[in-house]
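We emphasize that the prediction below concerns an isolated chain of 316 residues; any contacts that depend on oligomerization or on bound cofactors are therefore not represented. The input was used exactly as deposited, without trimming of termini.
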Amino acid sequence: MTTGAIQKAEPLTPAEKQLLWVMGQIEKRGARLEKLLHPDMPRERFEESCRLAFAKNPDLTDLNKTDGASLMQAILLGARSGLDVHGHYGHLVSFNNTKEGKKSIAYMADFKGLIATAKASGVIIDAEGVLVHEKDEFHVTGGANGQIHHVPFIRRKATDVKGAIIAAYTRLLLPSGQWVCKGLMLLEDIERIEGGIKAKNGPWGGPHRGEMIRKSSFRQAWKWLGPTTSDRAMALRIQALEEAEIIETTGEIVTPPPEAPQTGVGRAKAAAQKALEAKTAGTVAAEVASSGEPDDAEKAAILAQEKAMAEPGSEG
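Result of the prediction step, given as a token string:
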């Protein structure tokens, strides 16, 4: 007679506990996510995007370092944008929060995400962001909406350098088949935007500066296009991206608006819900720390949930 030893589940680390808690909070907001998400972004796909973002940056779910309320708010803003949050079209970005001593999390759409949204709205077929460097042949006639003459400098040898970025513009392919150049930003425009950025340790100050300049130019070009859609779902996506722009340039978190115009009672309910979410997210570190080690039944349930979430189509 042989006896098989019962294999006990490995204890969950604090990081794993916090990750499960965050994913649980996302699941609890499932009904709200269903309302916020654009039809192009199913809930399961968005939740997987969150998991990928957390896997790439574990500090996002380390609630001893990260402000949980801002994390949840960034996730909901990402949901409203209709884009992912794990780095293909959008990102969950950390900012220093000196008041709280923790990192605040903000959602940011990248250049590709803005273009994808504009294409989905039908106002353009395609777009290209163009940077102008010091050694390029470049001049503009007729002001910001005039004709752009630009011949990029071609490096002939390894020691050649293009020089610093001195301007940027966006080429738009309109539904008519016409290419137009809009969103012209000269050096003084770039410097003015950079001077107003409060998050000095953000993407403007690193290797992604060129991408940020392209994105700023595209935003100007998009405004030139005027009202972009009468579709409510697309309008909400665009509104979310506008709020993300405010966060990106000011470092100030924007509270998501209600789903519909509210009465005084509705505003009170929304404020109460916001306070509840902030309180819940803000106390998670203590909750996790005091929860103790789960028993075998709880571990089995957690592992089964993890397996189900990790295997596509496992819901049956």
